[in-house]
Write a structure and sequence with these properties.
six-stranded mixed β-sheet, single chain, Rossmann fold, five-stranded parallel β-sheet, 13 helices, Glycerate kinase, domain 2, alpha/beta
Length: 377
Amino acid sequence: MKFIIAIDSYKGSLTSIQACGAAKQAILSVFRDAEIITVPIADGGEGTATAFYHAFGGRMEKVTVTSPDFTNISASYAILPDNTAVIEMAEASGLTLVRGEKNAGEATSLGTGELIRDALGKGCRSFIIGLGGSATNDGGAGALAALGVKFLDKQGNPIKPNGNGLCKLYTIDTDGLVPELAESVFTIACDVENTLCGENGASHIYGEQKGASGNDIIRLDDNLYHYAKSVEKTTGRDILGIKGGGAAGGMCAGLMGFLNAETQSGIKLLLERIKFKELITDADYIFSGEGKADAQTANGKVIIGIADYTKQAGKPLIVVAGQLADGYECIFEKGVTAAFSTTHYAEPFEQIKHRAEKDLSDTVKNICRIIRAVGKI
């Protein structure tokens, strides 16, 4: 039998590689002669660079960059064999990197720009930028500042490159933009449709989870609007209406305002590059999963990205999720065959997260025992 395992990370407990590895060993414990292909998965968030590196090879680069709260940290990115750089915001500008209280207005995307600049210096001209898990709300101004764009106040002094600093923005100077960017192409892995501003924009939809509330959210939204108008005045590009422009605190809109960039679904970007359609042609079963499946899972997350392929191929897709929450049944309409929760105890996450690998393994073993008993579905 042939199994394909493409499980996303269980945030806070297992990486995608760990989850796929646990499922593989579980299958082998029941079907010792099975052919198993593991496909570590990411949709643009945490683990994206590692997923691409695992799939294609190349090398990982480690660089000292600026964290969201302006301290020095070490961050990694991948350079694939074709010299494409895969950079994820979570590595340099992620919410998990914030020390102390979260503060969306004070956080900067400077570090992400520093990773891009490092890759440019190593000869990369093709980029994949994963936007998930950011701490920022600066419209990408921090990253662009690292790439040579000058954001100046009325006195001609640089503003602080964060969401709060944008209120002082008066002019934008692009004369110092790194020259190599003119010959570079950026693919932005983005799975949301939020625009930059307004009730469905970056500040209102994602600001609270990054530490903003009430009047802060309104102020940050106003700052991004002011920023967008300044960008249009400087580059001639209207970034307010870009579908997905509000992703990662507006990083998507910012990059598209200054660079040769386009957006693409994060999960589809990876699956297309690894030729997932061909990979599953002769597979008997495909396993996927993530930390939680719920009503939101149907909106383009990893499981549904994989289901698009398995449904077309007529292959059974089995989901193993840490939790099956309210509304998870919607995934069956998208092509999922069956779904199972790996959690064995009704206790707080902090008390059971250490069991995630064993619980996942046990669940997959039990599923395989059913398959062995009843034959191929």
